[in-house]
Amino acid sequence: MTLAPSRAAAACIAAALFVHPVAAQGATKEPIADNSFLMEEAYNQEPGVVQHISGFTRTTGQQGWAYSFTQEWPAPGQRHQLSYTVPVLRAGDPGSTGIGDVILNYRLQVISDDARGVAFAPRLSVSLPTGDYKKGLGLGGTGWQLNLPVSKTIGASVVSHTNAGATWFAKVPGAGQDASLRAVNLGQSFIWLVTPRFNVMLENVWTRTTTRTSSGDRSDETAFISPGVRWGYDFASGMQVVPGFAFPIGVGQSSGTRQVFVYLSFEHPFTEAARPHPK
Length: 279
Hints:
Porin
C-alpha cells in the first residue's frame, strides 16, 4: 500500500532534510572530514574543490527506500558554500517511485579554528515542492530549514559533531489541505579516527515533527542510534573517494525500526590551482 499523507510527510522530511545533511571534507592529506551519515559536519568545501555525495537508506521489512544526490561547491572560497540535494524515493509497498522535494542549501563558515580544533558553519536551506505529494513523494509546499552544526576535535583521535536545527513549512498538502508543519532536530556524534583513512562512527539523532491542521496538532518523534564506518582512498589527481555504511537503530517512539544506510562520495579539484603539484 502507499504511504498515508502524514507518513509520507515524515518520510520525505527524514530522507531529504535530516538523513542526508550537507558538509564538506578537508584536504586529502588530512584525516577524513567527510559527510557524516545522519549528522552534519561544520566544514565547508575548499576553494577549487567540488564534492558529489550519494546516500541510500532502506528500512528493513519495508519496500520503501530513499536515495539522495548532493553536489557541493565553494562560492567561490571556503567561507561561502552552495549545494543542492535531489532525492529519489520509493514511497510504500508497492508505492510510487520518483523525484522528491529538491533542496537548495547555503552555508557560512563562521568559525574554522585549526588551533583549537573548532568549526561552526550554520546552514539555511529551502525545500522546493518538486515531488508529487499525491504519490507520497513530497510535501506539496515550500519549506525552510536552519541547522547549526559545531565540530570539535577531542585529543588526537576523536572528533565530535553537534547539531541543532528547525524546519518550517507554511503549507503541506501532503499532510492535509489545511496543514502546516514545523520540526526541531538535535544530534550528537563521535568519530574515532582508528587511522586517518578508517573511521568508526556513532551518531545519535532526534527529530520532533508537529503537523498543524484545523482539527488540531499532531506530533511525531523519531530517534536513532547509528553505528557505522567510513574509509577513504586518495589519488594522485587530487580525487578522494569515501565509501561507508551504517545501521541506524530506532529508539523511543522509533523502537523496533532498523535501517541500512550506504554512502559514497567523490571529491576532486576543478581548478588548476587546487590540483596537487609534485614538489
